[in-house]
Amino acid sequence: MTDIGNAHPGGQAFELVLDKSENRVAEFEVRAKSPLQKLQHLLHANPTAVPAIVLLLSVAAFGFTVGPRFLSLFNLSLIIQQVTIIGVIGVAQTLIVITAGIDLSVGAVMVLCSVIMGKLAIATGLAAPLALLIGLAVGAGCGAMNGVLVTRLKLPPFIVTLGTWSIFFALNLWYSASETIRSQEVAKTAPLLQALGTPVDVFGARFTYGSFFMLGLVAFIWFVLNRTAFGRHLYAVGDDPDAARLAGIRTGRILFAVYVIAGMICALGAWALIGRIGSISPQAGQTANLDSITAVVVGGASLFGGRGSIIGTLIGALIVGVFRNGLALSDVDVLWQEFAVGWLIIVAVALDQWIRKVSA
């Protein structure tokens, strides 16, 4: 063994190592990724890729099996009309899901706001624009109630919104007295409430103002999520709330704001709902809760938070619309249509679990 600290010929002391010891730098083996792993990373980086591919394949499949009836401009535009409500409510649900929450009350909030708008405008004679504003305020109030229970009392969003769903639905039945306001009365007294149901013909296709309203809302929320600090904070809170808090993000305020915004979007969905069905019914929109969750999950959002896209939700809503429309044109019973949509949800969640393993 060589002495430690021997003098260098130049007079400078330095530490020597053992004779014949290993002096190579540590090396790490780099394993080549398999094609499946490359696909997994690609899908993780592009969460809307899967729903976009599924939508294209679904359109192609039903176009092949059903034929020109499905691929006609009128039918394709009809699908967009049919998913307007799901699309609007799905936007609200997406914001909640990104924060690792879930809102089971969105449908009840929507219907409650529609009833309040209708009763104020038709029964009390209040000006329709003012009735709309009050409906928006009620939606914001419902969202604030959810937000306070989640942020202040630290209750799980699932339990909170399950409870408020029952509360809002009961208030809806009480205030409406379980009575439906006919479309003729709405058209005569407050036509503004039906404005989003006005049809628009474009090159042989028929849309409604509600369809364009849904697309405009999706574009606006996309901008907020991808081009503003609020959007970045929202994803950070959903991905890791503790890390977000340490980074200086006020997670409680972000969560509260998200629930309030979601409530207001549900109120906008109420306006679209009135335009879609014409009348104002306390029994309308019964499947909106599950439909919105379906659109969000099929659209590639993760129920574990921190991952999701408004564009993906729109595509998810269109996938559900394409499946239901294509199966209906194929004379498939409604029971089996719901069966197919159920499998869509299961496959989407399983695929999300697989894609999330990239970050593990």
Give a written overview of the molecule.
By secondary structure, the chain is mainly α. It has a single domain (71-359), classed as ABC transporter involved in vitamin B12 uptake, BtuC (Orthogonal Bundle), CATH 1.10.3470. Helix content is 68%, strand content 2%. It is built from 16 helices and 2 strands. It has helices at 35-45, 49-66, 68-71, 73-82, 84-98, 106-123, 128-151, 157-176, 183-189, 209-227, 229-239, 241-246, 251-277, 288-298, 310-329, 334-356, and strands spanning 199-202, 205-208. A two-stranded antiparallel sheet has the order 1-2. Strand 1 and strand 2 (205-208) form a beta hairpin.
Could you outline the blueprint of secondary structure elements for this entry?
Elements: H1 35-45, H2 49-66, H3 68-71, H4 73-82, H5 84-98, H6 106-123, H7 128-151, H8 157-176, H9 183-189, E1 199-202, E2 205-208, H10 209-227, H11 229-239, H12 241-246, H13 251-277, H14 288-298, H15 310-329, H16 334-356
Antiparallel strand pairs: 1-2
